[in-house]
Amino acid sequence: MTATRPVSTPRAGYGAMTLTLPGADRKRKPAAYSFRVTYRAPDPAEPGCVMTWQVAGGREPYQVALERLKSGRVRWHCSCADATYRGEDDHLHACKHVRGLHDCLPPVG
Ligand SMILES: [Zn+2]
């Protein structure tokens, strides 16, 4: 077996990290959330989906996605209720999952 996949092939990797975020309980006690990378684009500068994460540790599992727009800017998406409802009215609003990830990544534009 000598066949190796080209490094640029998108794949589900083993990248995962745990972040401490305000918890889902009423007191927002800090809780551990795990972020597992489920997709990485071969070229992060190309418009489209750059990366996606599966978030565990909250009330439900959530999906976070980082999208590269044609303008070169990026937009974050999260499937949690906070992002869905508050993000609709305020496009600059970022839920705690997105804020936590954002703080752990290099500047992406
Ligand atoms: Zn969220």
Bound molecules: zinc ion
Globally, the shape reads globular
Terminal Cα separation, in Å? 41 Å
Order of helices and strands: EEEEEHH
The percent range for strand residues is 35-45%
Query: Which strand order spans the largest sheet, edge to edge or round the barrel?
Result: 1-2-3-4-5
Number of strands: 5
Q: Which sheet architecture does the biggest sheet show?
A: 5 strands, antiparallel
The tally of domains stands at 1
The computed structural class is: alpha+beta
How many helices? The count is: 2
Radius of gyration: 15 Å
Mean of the pLDDT scores?
86
Helix content: 10-25%
Write a brief structural summary.
The protein is 15% helix and 36% strand. The chain has helices at residues 81-89, 96-102, and strands spanning 16-22, 30-40, 48-56, 62-68, 74-78. A 5-stranded antiparallel β-sheet has the order 1-2-3-4-5.
How would you describe this structure to a colleague?
Helix content is 15%, strand content 36%. It has 109 residues and is α+β, with helices and mostly antiparallel strands. It has one domain (16-104). It has a five-stranded antiparallel beta sheet with strand order 1-2-3-4-5. The chain binds zinc ion. Zinc ion is lined by residues 62, 78, 80, 82-83, 95, 97-98.
Layout of SSEs?
Layout: E1 16-22, E2 30-40, E3 48-56, E4 62-68, E5 74-78, H1 81-89, H2 96-102
The chain binds zinc ion.
